[in-house]
Amino acid sequence: MSSDQPNAVPPGIDPDRLAELLDRERAGWIEARPRAVALHERARRSQVHGTPQHWISQFPPPVPLVVDRAVGARLYDTDGHEYADFGLAATAALWGHNHPAVVAAVRDQLDRGSVTLWPNEDHVAVTEELQRRFGLPFWQFTVSASDANRFALLLARVATGRQRILMFNRAYHGSLEQAAAVLTADGVIPEPGVEPNGVDVRRTTKMVEFNDLDALERALAPGDVAAVLAEPVMTNGGAVIWPEPGFHAALRDLTRRTGTLLVIDETQTIPAGPGGCVREFGLDPDLITMGKCIAGGIPAGLYGMSGAVAAAAARYTEHGDGGLGSTMAGGPLAVRAMRAVLGEVMTEETYAHMNRLAERYQRDVAAVIARHDLPWHVGRLGGRVSYAFTPTPPRNAGQLYPRVGSSLRDALWLYLANRGIVLNGMSGAALMSPMTAESDVELHGTLFAEVIGALTGRGER
Ligand SMILES: Cc1ncc(COP(=O)(O)O)c(C=O)c1O
């Protein structure tokens, strides 16, 4: 979530045209949104940065998009503009806003009670379904994916008696203090912008680059790492970064040989398929974590674990809470919504629609890149599409730093949003939902060709 970038302009883009376009689009955004401007002014008096979360203030628009209604795959703002939403709340709204199956389930549950601290049948139906889809036998509920990772890592330490964790450089796994680190020539240091007097990441965290198996082997060799925490395909750093052939087999083998647990974070990779990457790739981790879209827009997270980890967890929590859990975790609203998502939304048909539209979106972007001979790359994982300003697919997220093209990302985001298309505010990535319309994907293709034509100065070609 940091922005430690010199703002270089990617090759192929005319810097003067970019600066001009960015100014014009920023001014146009503000001019057409008097109500959003007024609300932002008001918000500044009671919210840090004038936004409910700090990172909204780092998104491209000069005043935030103020949403009046979110319906299906569309957003309607307070100034009367309508948008096709490809940002989908950074995967949290992957199924579309207010999916009818989720709305019906939540409405019904509201009448039956929204928090009780007692179990109901939905909890069992959900954990049984997770078992079936993702393979791991035992599951626990959390309020967020950050918490799922926090508790998974705590249990990994409990089960192994080791303290350290290992992560891939520039991966994001939520607001975890020991994960707020980056790899430099001098080793692991706190991520820029993170309080240096917090957790000592040099002591808690090892880091290697994604796809670097030699470095991974060296880092695990001393046998002091409790768990490797990994996304199966890296989705942060503004790109889709694929594991190289054999990577996952070697990762599993190295972790097993060194007594290290493997935690696979599926939070952003659910768009890969109805059983995430774990099922698509046939992975066999010790723990799985997720959140965001899993309850269709109601806050929720989950972690699954092997029998061995569950046995350690049971021993560990025999006499106390062990620092695990949260009062609202597994709340009836969230669990009812999860049951609806797993039973009625995460189906083969849903994924077929998302994949078909994502393929089209990727093809449109690739065609523009090719027509303009730009040394850029567009990647896809199921319903997620993302472009990187690198000539070949990135191998790791470290390669994408120092960041290149932040002002270009802002310009693209604003040009599209001023014309009715919203991308992810942080990375510019796009997600397809089961409610996304093909005509919106087509509109994106047309506008993308138009804006790249304007920025290269070579027209649409
Ligand atoms: C891979 C991954 N894991 C975990 C999280 C944390 O999710 P949340 O912010 O909902 O707790 C994120 C958030 O972006 C993520 O990308």
TrEMBL record:
It comes from the Bacteria. One of its GO terms (molecular function) is pyridoxal phosphate binding. Its cofactor is pyridoxal 5'-phosphate. The keyword tRNA-binding does not apply. Keywords: Aminotransferase, Pyridoxal phosphate, Transferase. The keyword Membrane does not apply. NCBIfam families: PRK07046.1 (NF005453). Belongs to the class-III pyridoxal-phosphate-dependent aminotransferase family. This is Aminotransferase class III-fold pyridoxal phosphate-dependent enzyme. It comes from Actinomadura rubrisoli.
